[in-house]
């Protein structure tokens, strides 16, 4: 198998794995979706490596992305539809950039918002709340994707968040409302949904 065929297979496989893992995470297919995301990053990394290596061997230099961008802008000034044809012609480069950009966004989101105080407090609350534990059983794994909306300072604040986790008794989504008073976060309301049965348990 030549390098050109190899990197195309690797990049396509990485993209498919990423999309499937994203869908799996949102639907609670854990921890398989997490492993899929990690594997996708690895496969995509190898694909980029072999792509750049093949490009250098066949053309004598690495791709000049800024030059390609200038060419696209110049052609679009003559005809706006040229932008579409340019993307089709450079489809592999385009979806690789989209894939990498998506991976970077997920990583930044997970390391910042996904590891914020409201998320950690909610996770700890789920793991120690007797009523939740009776329904879910022991929590085994949290999804990577989190939906968080927060506003706070050192003393006060509020946060609304949603995250998915897999436990002994199935896959659950918890939506919680937190308030920060005197520098401490506290869960004020939460809604626990069993994603397998649709059962809804809301508490205040």
Automatic annotation (TrEMBL):
Transmembrane segment boundaries: 5-23, 35-52, 94-113
Record keywords, A-Z: Membrane, Transmembrane, Transmembrane helix
Protein name as annotated: Cytochrome oxidase complex assembly protein 1
Organism: Flavobacterium haoranii
């Amino acid at each position: 198998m030549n390098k050109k065929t190899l990197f195309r297979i690797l990049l396509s496989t990485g993209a498919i794995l990423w999309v499937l893992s994203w869908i799996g995470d949102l639907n609670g297919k854990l921890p398989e979706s997490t492993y899929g995301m990690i594997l996708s990053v690895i496969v995509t990394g190898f694909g980029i490596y072999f792509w750049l290596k093949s490009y250098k061997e066949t053309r004598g230099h690495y791709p000049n992305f800024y030059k390609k961008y200038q060419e696209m802008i110049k052609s679009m000034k003559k005809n706006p539809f040229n932008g579409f044809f340019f993307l089709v012609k450079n489809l592999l480069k385009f979806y690789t950039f989209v894939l990498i950009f998506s991976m970077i966004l997920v990583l930044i989101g997970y390391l910042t918002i996904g590891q914020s105080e409201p998320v950690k407090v909610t996770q700890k609350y789920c793991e120690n709340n007797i009523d939740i534990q009776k329904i879910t059983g022991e929590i085994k794994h949290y999804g990577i994707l989190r939906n968080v909306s927060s506003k706070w300072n050192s003393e006060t604040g509020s946060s609304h968040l949603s995250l998915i986790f897999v436990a002994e008794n199935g896959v659950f989504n918890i939506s919680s409302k937190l308030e920060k008073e005197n520098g401490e976060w506290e869960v004020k309301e939460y809604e626990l949904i069993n994603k397998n049965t649709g059962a809804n348990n809301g508490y205040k």
